[in-house]
Predict the 3D structure of the following.
Amino acid sequence: MLPAFEAILGQDAAIRKLRSILKNKRIPHALLFTGMDGVGKRTAAVTMAMACNCLSYAQKVQGEGNTADGTPASVGCPCGTCRFCVKIAEGVHPDVTIVEPENGTIKISQIRSLCDVLMLRPFECRMRVAIISDAHLMNPSAGNALLKTLEEPPAHTLLILTAQQTADLLPTIVSRCQHIRFNPISRAILSDILICQRGLGAEEASIISRLAGGSVSKAIGLKESWMHQRCWLMDELSRLHDSSLHIVLALSEKLSKNRDALPDVFEIMLSWFRDILVFSHDPDRVINQDALDGIREASGRYDSDQVYRSIRAVQMIQNHIQAKANVQLSLDHLLLSLKAFQQ
């Protein structure tokens, strides 16, 4: 249940804009929420749908001023307890439709079906709301079909699109939406979420919040097994300069067996080299604080040029594998290159 916009942590500027829209009763026909994954865009979209249709908020506008349980209503905030709020939060309200990608794509059939629904008057709410999650995954046909609806929006309808960035959408779609940007979540807030909601210790929460890059979903996804893998891989990287060819190729073979884990592997590598680079300038900015001794020792073996070459090598192999290059050969080349850079 989403009682108020305040539940969307760390997005004060975005929430102020949404509350202002509701307070001024000037709800646009389309909103576009952009920002990285895991910063509250989907939660804000559902909360906006609740706020537009909340029974207690309607009473507030009419001057009655109380929520369903008798407490004072807050302008621009859904009560979270009326029957409309409950049904919307549970995803079962007939006037609120959520469109999500199917197999990584939003297809034209999904958008056509949505447009047909939007032509109908609301069943019981004041406003019909459609949320298109990850709208940047619409194929061109779907995007063009949606554009027709945006050009002639039905009455009593609000479209909310979420995407990572405006550049991933048709410019004509972006121009017809009111844009609200969601920023990465601060490390302090992420750390508090991990401690209070996930039961992590302060040190582990601090490390994960640094690695999560401002994403709540990514922070929550970095589980204990990932932390163990991180420590193991950083230890292997620190010993790479002394490792024999046989050990290097064995490490490559082990990493190649789990292709799905490679994005995390590359991220750990990049964070390790990044820490080596910043250690001599500001040790407090090191991400992997629990590996500070190893990073200090490794920084003595590298000059800045070697670190930059290592980072570029990781990024190059990462791109090659994404382009379907042979995983085993690519990792062989990467690890042998990283070993050579430490000589």
Remarks:
- The domain at 224-341 is CATH 1.20.272 (Zinc Finger, Delta Prime; domain 3).
- The first strand starts at residue 30 and ends at 34.
- Confidence is low (pLDDT under 50) at residues 61-75.
- The beta strands are 30-34, 96-99, 128-132, 157-163, 178-181.
